[in-house]
């Protein structure tokens, strides 16, 4: 089959998110201009550079996270895992702006070292980030609607050393999860190694 997204499809649900999957989950913690902490998952999230490390997340709608990040210029990416999946999902609720999702989901806040936004104590890894750009996401007509992308440099990395195996971060041990299509998620249970053929095997 073939369809043009603007004119629709004949399937029960839009397959786009299932095709572009799995996607890492940007579990973003931030602080509002009034000091209210927010924690929310974003499925349009990824690493976009390695030196220096940089990440992005995009918001469809002007939600609390993007409003906070626009005001503060910083956020934390908390690793979403199978053990934390239910509580991560709880933070996706459309709470009023004055609700602290850490408290609503029964999670522990820990101070960051480089920024003011707290991180999730229970996660195996977290990235402290400072914003470099906030961009409207325009379509072919030049209309951004309420689509906004925040790009940030990672200025601090937290790793629970229990999840290091021979000096490598162990995604299987951590139980890293990813967002797929529809309401589906994926658990990292197995990895395979395949070095680039033109580089030494490290």
TrEMBL record:
Residues 18-171 form the Flavin reductase like domain. InterPro entries: Flavin_Rdtase-like_dom, Split_barrel_FMN-bd. One of its GO terms (molecular function) is oxidoreductase activity, acting on the CH-NH group of donors, NAD or NADP as acceptor. SUPFAM superfamilies: FMN-binding split barrel. Gene3D superfamilies: Electron Transport, Fmn-binding Protein, Chain A. It holds the Pfam family Flavin_Reduct. PANTHER family: BLR2425 PROTEIN, FLAVIN REDUCTASE LIKE DOMAIN-CONTAINING PROTEIN. This is Flavin reductase family protein.
């Amino acid at each position: 089959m073939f369809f043009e997204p603007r004119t629709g499809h004949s399937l029960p649900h839009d397959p786009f998110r299932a095709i572009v999957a799995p996607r890492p989950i940007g579990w973003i913690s931030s602080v509002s201009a009034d000091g209210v902490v927010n924690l929310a998952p974003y499925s349009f999230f990824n690493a976009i550079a390695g030196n220096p490390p940089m990440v992005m997340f995009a918001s469809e709608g002007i939600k609390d996270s993007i409003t906070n990040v626009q005001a503060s210029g910083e956020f934390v990416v908390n690793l979403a895992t199978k053990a934390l999946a239910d509580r991560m999902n709880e933070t996706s609720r459309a709470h009023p702006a004055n609700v602290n999702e850490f408290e609503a989901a029964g999670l522990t806040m820990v101070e960051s070292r480089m920024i003011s936004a707290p991180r999730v104590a229970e996660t195996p890894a977290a990235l402290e980030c400072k914003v470099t750009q906030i961009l409207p996401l325009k379509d072919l007509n030049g209309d951004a609607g309420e689509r906004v992308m925040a790009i940030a440099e990672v200025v601090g990395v937290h790793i629970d050393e229990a999840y290091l195996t021979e000096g490598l971060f162990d995604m299987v041990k951590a139980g890293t999860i990813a967002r797929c299509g529809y309401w589906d998620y994926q658990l990292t249970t197995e990895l395979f190694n395949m070095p680039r053929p033109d580089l030494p095997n490290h």
